[in-house]
From TrEMBL:
This is Bile acid:sodium symporter. Signal peptide: none annotated. It comes from Pseudoxanthomonas winnipegensis. Keywords: Membrane, Transmembrane, Transmembrane helix. The chain crosses the membrane at residues 40-57, 69-88, 100-120, 132-154, 166-184, 205-224, 230-254, 282-302. InterPro entries: Na+/solute_symporter_sf, Put_Na-Bile_cotransptr. One of its GO terms (cellular component) is plasma membrane. The keyword ATP-binding does not apply.
Length: 330
């Protein structure tokens, strides 16, 4: 237990590992796989409907005025990361399997995560309203930008769907339920807020369901037979390197642009994080066949790496703020 605390391995990460193990030992096949695919589509739509119902209109208005901060975060998410992905891709192709290398590119094209970006910004003493708006805007824009960026980065690799078709499917499956939930917020917002703690498990359950379905298909197609252990370790190394370089560059950029400390914190956490909750459903729409499991694996690994790293960085920011706020002794 002490070791888990030191490594900051949360319960959800253990559930992800358990889901991958279950899919490896007992993958869903045949007609049952088709049923599971339909169930995951419904679960994803419900997930984004609830996300829309949770997003406060006041939070949107409060954060929208800080346009320099939002443009900086969007540039980090959708420009800096794809450029980093292009830089590491030639090396990744040699060290990883084709599916894992494509998954790294997909990781770099994803939008920012919402909940943990806000949580870490708050923990570090940053600009929380701006983080709410920036992370939410990143998720919504990712519906359009992620398929387009992946087309530029990867072309037709990995049986990727036509970008316009992918955008339409993502709009239908993610954005339409999100907007519907937000429009119904006056009616159901209070109910959703009162059950926020319980609904967190519906978020996680949906991700686990999609991961199980994706990895089942990948295992049936021979994922583990074609994925050496060194390639898996390589993904961990690439994920850690991407996050480390990105956070260093984003911090430097925020300071060079003269942002206040609270804004810098929001930029660092919103600009460096990638969304597992949005990425897995997007991958399901954008990629076909057994390649899906290998493609989402780098996203899952990056998810844990960013949680560990951002927890440490947030605590350092918080300690720095405490020292700054402390009264000076006479």
């Amino acid at each position: 237990m002490n070791l888990l605390k030191r490594l900051r391995i949360d319960t959800f990460t253990l559930c992800l590992l358990g889901t991958v193990l279950l899919a490896s030992l007992l993958p869903v096949r045949g007609t049952a796989a088709g049923w599971m695919d339909d169930i995951t589509d419904v679960a994803i739509a419900a997930l984004f409907f609830l996300h829309g119902a949770r997003l406060s209109r006041e939070a949107i208005v409060a954060g929208m005025t800080h346009w320099r901060l939002h443009l900086t975060i969007l540039a980090c998410t959708f420009v800096l990361f794809p450029l980093l992905g292009l830089l590491v891709h030639p090396l990744a192709v040699h060290l990883l399997t084709p599916g894992l290398a494509l998954g790294l590119l997909f990781l770099c094209a994803l939008p920012s995560t919402v909940q943990s970006s806000i949580a870490f910004t708050s923990m570090a003493g940053g600009n929380v309203p701006a983080a709410v708006c920036a992370a939410s805007a990143s998720s919504l824009l990712g519906v359009f930008l992620t398929p387009a960026i992946m087309t530029l980065l990867a072309g037709t690799q990995g049986q990727m769907a036509d970008p316009l078709q992918a955008m339409f499917k993502i709009l239908l499956q993610l954005l339409v339920p999100f907007v519907a939930g937000h429009l119904l917020r006056p009616l159901i917002g209070g109910w959703v807020e009162r059950r926020r703690a319980v609904l967190k498990y519906t978020d996680q359950g949906t991700i686990l369901l999609v991961v199980y379905t994706a990895f089942s298909a990948a295992v049936v197609e021979g994922l583990w037979q074609h994925t050496p252990l060194l390639a898996l370790l390589g993904v961990v190394g690439f994920a850690a390197a991407l996050l480390g370089v990105a956070m260093a560059l984003i911090t430097l950029l925020a300071r060079r642009l003269g942002f206040a400390r609270s804004d810098e914190i929001a930029i660092v956490f919103c600009g460096s994080k990638k969304s597992l909750a949005t990425g897995v459903p997007m991958a399901k729409v954008m990629f076909a066949g057994g390649a899906l499991g290998a493609i989402v694996l780098p996203v899952m690994i990056y998810h844990q790496v960013q949680l560990i790293t951002c927890a440490v960085v947030a605590q350092r920011y918080a300690r720095g703020k405490a020292r700054t706020d402390a009264p000076i002794a006479d």
